[in-house]
Specification:
With 481 residues, the chain is an alpha/beta fold. Helix content is 33%, strand content 22%. The strands form 4 sheets. An 11-stranded mixed β-sheet has the order 8-7-6-9-5-10-11-12-13-14-15, sandwiched between helices. A 6-stranded mixed β-sheet has the order 16-17-21-18-19-20, sandwiched between helices. A 4-stranded parallel β-sheet has the order 1-2-3-4. Helix 10 packs antiparallel against helix 11.
Length: 481
């Protein structure tokens, strides 16, 4: 593609006279080859401007940057921009032929519920007979073909390449998680959304955003950028639901379990076997469990209807859906029910435990195993321990993904949220495998064991090395011995 066509919509700060043929776009100088365009991004650890010389030596014919290079480079086109990250998103969209405009792309943002909502929307539309793509924390999919996932939201180049592949495969729809990081880092710049969904907003990612105000602003920016042709479906039971759509051009639609809304849900029954819901006055039985999933299912129902699925058909399809991997997944054996859930924020943990407490019978004890990730927001650690201790009969504190932190220090931070009396009742086992085994050994017939924090993950990150570890696998082995 010619450079001038590639940078349409980028708005360079200086005139660009040269118009070389661009073979590919790179933001990693190690991947630059003859005819590449190199994008110099300012990262948290590395500044791409330091690698402009290297990129040119390796064959880059154009450079997009926020600062002019110190040395002049004859024959190399320099595109000076205000924000390289945003420019990359726009150019990626141009390079791949505007794939998001060629299908109906729906993004969901919020602290909890993103993975479940996009995964089940994808399943619903596949069962409706549609070609559809999925971009999620667990996996990316083009129809039913799996493409490994490394981030909640991929970088702009990978994202547009995946959307292009979806278009080529005939996909009519695509459903994607939109993380707050990706919004701030402009990874979704240049995309055209047919709809946006807001689930909820609670304490998370303050290691990155620093303040809740910044976190809220990041989520809101997604809705600010929606076009007038899109819908914005928001949970108005969350106090930030209305805030999200204050400045949106999109058509605002609402969902709720507590208020009048466009899509109104009432929980009729909640058992370990599933939920009986009343959606806009019509009952539907679903296999998912817990009040938090009632919110997810209402959002899914609302989005399906807004995308043109007839209401009766949307309800029928809802009744066929099962939980996403690592989201309230059940494992049974020896008369014990174990639940694996990704809950890794205070609100998510409280929701999962509350759901279990709502449905467990008298005499059933709840034993919770939970840890907190290393090199992440430390302020939620004592809060999560307090929630788990207060709402469970027994608590085992353990490691999650310690990463480069000392796991004992993480557990110290968690225990800081407990009173001396509470600490005396808590079991502390750093080794996650032993912690899960201990909880199962303490459980009696009929009891429930919740293992929270890692969900779908198949590894444990310790000092930069990912060791195979699967909570579900551990439980299946213990409960089927």
């Amino acid at each position: 593609m010619k450079l001038k066509k590639l940078i349409e919509g980028v708005a360079p700060l200086c005139p660009v006279d040269a118009d070389p043929e661009i073979m590919d776009i790179c933001f990693d100088s190690r991947k630059v080859g003859q005819g590449s365009l190199f994008v110099a991004q300012v990262g948290t650890r590395v500044d791409g401007h330091e690698y402009i010389e290297t990129a040119i030596k390796q064959g880059a014919v154009a450079v997009v940057c926020q600062r002019m290079p110190e040395c002049a480079h004859g024959g190399v086109a320099i595109v000076l921009v205000e924000n390289s990250d945003r420019a990359l998103g726009i150019m990626a969209d141009n390079f791949y032929g505007h794939p998001s405009q060629r299908l109906k792309l729906v993004g969901i943002t919020g602290t909890n519920g993103k993975t479940t909502t996009v995964t089940l929307l994808h399943r619903l539309f596949r069962r409706h007979g549609c070609h559809a793509g999925l971009l999620s924390t667990i996996v990316n999919k083009i129809d039913d073909e799996e493409v490994p996932s490394t981030h909640t939201t991929p970088d702009a180049l990978e994202l547009n390449a995946l959307l292009h592949r979806m278009v080529e495969a005939g996909c009519e729809y695509a459903f994607m998680e939109v993380s707050s990081h990706s919004i701030v880092q402009n990874r979704i710049a240049g995309l055209t959304f047919a709809g946006g969904i807001f689930s909820n907003l609670t304490h998370d990612h303050l290691d990155f955003h620093k303040t809740m105000a910044n976190y809220i602003a990041a989520k809101k920016a997604f809705f600010d950028g929606l076009p007038a042709t899109a819908f914005a479906l928001v949970n108005i039971d969350d106090r930030n639901g209305r805030v999200m759509v204050q400045n949106t051009r999109a058509a605002v639609r609402t969902y709720s379990l507590q208020r009048m809304a466009d899509f109104r849900c009432k929980v009729v029954e909640d058992t370990l076997g599933g939920l009986l819901l009343e959606l806009n006055g019509r009952e539907v039985w679903t296999r998912l469990v817990g009040r938090f999933n009632a919110y997810n299912l209402t959002a899914i129902y609302g989005a399906a209807v807004l995308l043109g699925v007839e209401e009766s058909e949307a309800l029928r399809l809802l009744s066929t859906l099962e939980a996403a991997e690592g989201r309230f997944e059940r494992v049974s054996g020896r008369g014990i029910t174990a639940i694996v859930d990704y809950a890794h924020t205070p609100d998510a943990l409280e929701n999962v435990i509350a759901a279990i407490n709502d449905i467990r019978t008298k005499g059933q004890s709840l034993l919770t195993v939970v840890g907190c990730g290393g090199d992440r927001d430390t302020s939620k650690r004592p809060e999560m321990a307090k929630i788990a201790c207060t709402m469970s009969d027994r608590l085992v504190l353990t490691s999650d993904n310690p990463r480069t932190e000392n796991p004992e220090r993480i557990l110290d931070d968690m225990e800081a949220g407990l009173t001396a009396e509470e600490r005396s009742q808590v079991v502390r086992i750093t080794d996650r495998r032993q912690a899960i085994k201990t909880a199962v050994m303490m459980a009696r017939e009929g009891d429930i064991v919740l293992v929270a924090g890692k969900g779908h993950e198949k590894y444990q990150d310790i000092n930069g090395v990912k060791h195979h570890f699967d909570d579900r696998e551990e439980l299946e082995s213990l409960l089927n011995e």
